[in-house]
Amino acid sequence: MFRYFICFFTLACFSFFVYANDNHSELREEQNIYGKIYNAPLHLSGSSKVTSVESLYSRKPLIVALVFTRCYGICNPYLLQLSENIKQLQSNTDFNVLVVSFDPRDNLKDMTNLAKQYRLENNRQWNFATTDSINEFINSIGFNPKWDSITQQFDHDALLVGVNEKGLITKNLLGIRTVDDLQLMIRSIHNVFIPSYRLPTKSNIFSCFNYDPKTQTNRPGLGLLFVALPAIITFLIVIIIVIKSKRAAA
Amino acid sequence: MNIESLKLKKISALWIIVILVLFIASIVLGILMRLNQGKVIEQSPLTFYTNMTTHGLTMIGIWFAAGMVAVNYLLQRYVKTSYGVNLFAFILTVIGVVMLWITTYAGKFSTGWTFLYPLPFRDLGSESWSTPLFLISLTVLGVGWLVWSVSLMAQILKKYTLSQAFAWQHFKSNASVETPPFILITTVTLIGVIASLIAAVIVIILYFAEYFSHGDFVNDALLMKNLIYFFGHTIANEMLYLGLAVIYEIFGEVSDRPKWKMTWYISLAWNCAMIFILTAFFHHLYMDFVQPQALQIVGQLASYLASIPSAAVTVFSIVAAVYGVKVRWSIVNLLFFLGVAGWVIGGLGAVIDATISNNIMLHNTLWVPAHFHTYNAMGNVLFSLGFFYWFSTQYVDKLVLSKLTKYTLALLIIGGIGFLMAFYVAGANSIPRRYSTYPVELTSGPYLAKVGALFASIYLIAILIFFYNIAKRCFVILSASSR
Ligand code: HEM
């Protein structure tokens, strides 16, 4: 009996997660690709001058991270992973990182403290900033944090946005990601082609290739046979005609 | 005149009139596109793309049909062909083309002639019924042409064994039976035509499957692209070969020269061409990174190998036929001769583009319309016009090279070259194809489009004069009786 209860309880908890997950994220990685990022005025930590998003991306392509300093959840592990990933890069380091707070309560001091937490306050590649035009900025990205008054927290995605030197969004990464994914984003902000594969679905039975995300391999699929089919059917038609003509002659 | 041959003449004459009328209408659409790109007129992007789709599909359809009409007509010299099937193909072609124009003009279907997946399912501003009607119109055309091609193939294989139809006996010395080059090229071409039409049938089935499944079945874009180019690239090339078959058959005859005989190298070249032409379409997928590299290499090799043997042998044969000997030049052999030149020049442009390292620069630029218009507007069209002239003057009038004909030919050449040069120069300057208007950065785009429109209008004047001359004789044939 106890075993059934545990099972039921686990399933019920799991279904809540599914619900929560469904409810939470409407954001998709392919959203707003090649849309222009809003040119918001920025207050950078460690600087008294107001600058703009454009002045950053026109110097070097940008990786934008959206956080809030009072976050109890994803923001810290996500920033930590990003800083670790960037440390691991041996080449392809020609870009800047812009960490922007989407919480109106955050001020420059909060952002400076956040930078210090990761020992990035003197790293010139990293820019910690607040902006007065946060709504326009996050709307141009399609990022939509929801305020939860009970927990006093934002319900939000961990989103990294790649922006090229023209201010166009070239790639989004959702969630905490590996250094390989970051490499792809860096290539994309430098306008280098990055392949993307459609995941296999039940409705797609005649694919030429099926991509397995676990092994990252592309296996030949049933669709490849279809490419040869016209030649095979033609061959059969010719054979049938030949047999029929022979019979008719006999 | 026997009743069977009169029926064949009449149906051929009817085909010719319909083809030329549609040709003129499609050239007008082409000129409108160039005028819009040149900012001389202002059309909405939707109008531009419906014009482009109609122009592309109609042109491919009519010049394929023109080649089939000519081959069907000349095949009668060797085997008996079916009048019923010819008429059936004609009726389905007319119905199919009318449906197609309704789809594009009333339904605003505007995917381009290659109807690449998933464009027919995207909201491009077209009516929702236009996609199924478009697919039905392709089915009607495809069924008509497939039945026609299989019927001609069956008639050839009734008289010739398979190896004779492919002229394999000519690989040995002292071939016991001679296969006329016309039969070999027709056989090789019909095989390609049948394969390409079957590819179209599969594409249509897959499109319908997705359309009716309401999301339960989704197509694979790479498979659809492979199949669409299997169909599109192959049929666009095979229709040229139909024209070449006609040249092999009647060039000698109209030039007072002996008829071309089958040799081992003609046999070898055309047998190779058959295999390579069926795999050359892979060069349309160079930009598709998922396509295996081996197929990309096959695409490049096949593009070279498909064009070189047949082109080399044909050019050699035609130059040998006219070099240093007295030739009776008429409008027919002049059109054939110029057409072969256009085919070879366009073919070279195509081979340049089919080379992977060049394709990176030229892909989807106006270089592509440049080369395919060269071997169509100044190649295949001239092959078929030559045949139409020859056909019409056989029963009414004689073949004479009047001053007016010479001037008309000059207009055709000047107009054709100018129109094509505007495409080539734009392509070399990286002006993209399929743009209804060019962004301000591409300053030479509109200028070259205007030049193209001007020369295309000169080409159109020449075609109108040819149309008048050919159609008036075709009408006489249509009204002839068997007595
Ligand atoms: C003087 C005669 C012609 C004119 C003025 C003309 C003009 C044009 C123009 C302006 C385009 C669009 C180019 C672009 O991509 O920007 C086009 C595309 C095309 N033309 Fe022509 N053309 C002519 C003759 C022909 C002929 C004889 C064929 C024969 C097969 C042909 C087949 C096509 C095809 C297949 C396309 C591609 C349509 C697409 O991309 O969907 N054209 N033509």
Structural class by helix and strand composition of chain B: mainly alpha
From the spread of the alpha carbons, the general shape of chain A counts as elongated
| Terminal-residue CA separation of chain A | 81 Å
Count of the separate structural domains of chain B: 1
Give a verbal description of the structure.
The complex is a heterodimer of chains A (250) and B (483). Chain A has helices spanning 2-24, 53-57, 75-88, 108-117, 134-141, 179-189, 223-249; strands at residues 41-44, 50-52, 62-67, 96-101, 126-130, 146-148, 153-155, 159-163, 169-174, 209-212, 217-220. With 250 residues, chain A is of the alpha+beta class. Chain A has a seven-stranded mixed beta sheet. In chain A, strands 6-7 form a two-stranded antiparallel ribbon. Residues 13-24 of chain A have low confidence and may be disordered. Chain B is mainly α. The radius of gyration of chain B is 22 Å and the shape is globular. The mean pLDDT of chain B is 93. Chain A binds chain B through residues 193, 195, 197, 201, 203-209, 218, 221, 223-224, 226-227, 229-231, 233-234, 237-238, 241-242, 244-245, 248-249, and chain B through 150, 153-154, 157-158, 161-162, 191, 194-196, 198-199, 202, 206, 213, 215-220, 222-223, 226-227, 230-231, 278, 289-291. The site of protoporphyrin IX containing FE (HEM) has 25 residues of chain B, from helix 1, helix 2, helix 12 and helix 14.
